[in-house]
Amino acid sequence: MTSPTASPAPVALRPGDLTLTASAVPQLPTSNVAPVTTPPPSAPRPGKGSAFTGIALTVTACAFFCLLDTGSKYVGAVLPLLMALWLRYALQSIFTLGWGLAQSGVDIFRTTHPRFQVMRAALFCSSNACAMMSLRYLPLAEFTAVVAMTPLAMTLVAALWLRQPVSPLRWVLVAMGFIGTVVIIRPGGANFSGGALVWPLLQLAANTAYQIVSSQMAGKERPLTTQIYTSLLALVLTTASLPWFWQMPDTAALWLGALAMGVGSTIGHLMLLKAYEHAKPATISPFLYSQIPFAVFSGWLLYGHIPDHWAVLGMVAIAVGGALSAWLSVRESR
């Protein structure tokens, strides 16, 4: 993850959907983004409220993201993948668009970087598709922990691809997160082979690319505008496949799962956006890992799954590594 300065408004990010904050790796360069001649209107200034309120909103957002993943796990296991994604994007677009129009009217559609909006939406779809496939093989808690590796994966990209300097301590944290992921997945084991191994790693790669593009856009677009374009463009991309995959939910449980996806994604993102208005990304970032215990509880309550001691150890390693990385970003920015 990157460390945006205090002035730009960060794009709302997290682990399971693509919405982690960008605050755990050195600042990624923005030289490939065209300079903005006219600043986006009404861009909120982050970190100008109560830190406690920001933290409370972040934890609540993580609870809704867990609701999103819970619904995705059920619906994605019953409906065709693209049909399940279309349902999520349709509901998310209705809710997000309604909120945006109520806040700013048609001006909410004003964007200065349409090319990046399309790129972000395409990566969003790819990440979500891999996530739904992963949830067919992995329990909620283990899936959430693997996705939480995204900030540390961005450190690796910053060092190897973007040639950013990375301190030895950061490399230790990356190694800690990698070991935690291996402990959770346990490649070659009886329960984690084939799709259970491939899809989470593909999702991690897609989500890391998504977060990098999001970090490039931070402060250059209103976060809600970006969320609307991402939802609508993802809906358009999946609509093209409907003639081959159309299958409407035919049970109340499926509709409830689809509603959980739409409501969880919309409210989770909006709450995270509000959290950034109260607290800085470095303050919020460690609390994004609260989604892991929410996932453990949801997996136990709905599916009767309790992570074994090795999985718990891996989750702790990833969460501690991510939280320490966020703390290190604060220290290095001083």
From TrEMBL:
Keywords tagged on the record: Membrane, Transmembrane, Transmembrane helix
Spans through the membrane: 49-67, 74-91, 143-162, 169-186, 192-212, 224-246, 252-272, 284-303, 309-330
Pfam families: EamA
Matches recorded under Gene3D superfamilies: 1.10.3730.20
Record's keyword annotation contains Acyltransferase: no
PANTHER family xrefs: ACYL-MALONYL CONDENSING ENZYME-RELATED, BLR2811 PROTEIN
Protein name from the UniProt record: Drug/metabolite transporter (DMT)-like permease
